Every structure is written in C-alpha cells, then in structure tokens.
Amino acid sequence: MKYLYTILLSALLIGCTNSNQSVTKTDDDLSAKIKLQYENYAANDFSFSDQYSEDVVARINNTVIDGKNNLMTGWKSHHEVLYVNINIEDVYIHTNYLSNGNVWTNAWFTWKGKGQTTGQEYSNRGHFDYKWEDGKIVELLAYFDETSENNEIAAYTASLEN
Predict the structure, then answer these.
(1) By the 8 A CB rule, do 129 and 144 touch?
(2) Of 50, 85, 122, 159, which sits 20 to 30 A from 23 (CA to CA)?
C-alpha cells in the first residue's frame, strides 16, 4: 500500500509540475507561419503582413520601428531599392509556449542578397523573435549585422546625388 501511495503521489506531483512548465515546439502552426513568412518575403510577397498587429513594435538592433505600415515599407524597400536575388537559408524556427501565457517564436537563418547599386553579394546571419498575442505578432526583436544594409543604402543615396 505504501508503494502504491508513493506512485500516486509522484504521479500527482509530476502532473501538477507539468502544467506549470513551458513548452517548445517546432511543428506547430506559429512556427510554420514564420517559415512561410520568410519564403514569401524572399519572393517579394508581403501577404503575410496580416500576421502583424497594426501597432506592432519592431526593435531591429537599436532601432525602434512603430507600426505595421512602417515595418512593411522597410522590408519592401529591400526588393524595390536595395537588393535582388534575396534568399533565406539555413532556417531553424521554434515557438515557446511559456507557462506565464506568453508565446514567442524564435528564428535563426542566413539572409542572402545582391546589392542593386553595388552588385555586391551579401550573406548575413540573423536571429528574430516574434511575440504573439491573440493570433497576431505584437512585438518583433531582430538581431543581425547591419553593415551590408548600411553599405547598400550609402551607395544608393550616392547614386541619387550624381
């Protein structure tokens, strides 16, 4: 009887503990949405913008971009002004369902593109974090080396002055 009691108590404690734990998934709907978002971005298809709240806050390195329209305008400029042959490779994505109710999708990848002005080939590792609320992305944290973007913007700006 003592043995049975110990097993039942252990099962109860494990069951209670598990309900307070965070879960990380790679095969969930939110991870799949971000993967598709990268594929669409590379194809210059911004239909994924409906995944973002209107007042999303994006923190890209040390720059804050407020609002979905401003964020999408910046990303569209990659295709319209700065780069050709954009591709996203080496993608790893998972979503964290935290015990406090927060949901974050994390992504690591390699961004590649060719400068429209310089003709230079770029390859850049990146890490993005997406906070979800009510099915929408409300916060984006993005970390990557901005050297290639700064070089291409400078070259494009100089070309306008000539």
Answers:
(1) no
(2) 50
Per-residue pLDDT at 2 = 56
The 10 Å Cβ neighbour count of residue 124 is: 15
| d(C-alpha 95, C-alpha 31), whole Å | 6
Give yes or no for a contact between 112 and 85, defined as CB atoms under 8 angstroms apart: yes
Q: Does residue 86 form part of some domain?
A: yes
CATH number at residue 90: 3.10.450.50
Domain that residue 100 falls in: 23-161
Rounded Cα distance between 85 and 14, Å, is 51
Say how far apart CA 97 and CA 13 lie, in whole Å. Answer: 21
Given CA atoms 22, 27, 32, 35 in this order, what sign does their dihedral have?
Answer: positive
Mean pLDDT of 69-75: 96
Domain total of the chain: 1
pLDDT of residue 17 exceeding 70, the answer is: no
pLDDT band at 8 (very low <50, low <70, confident <90, very high): very low
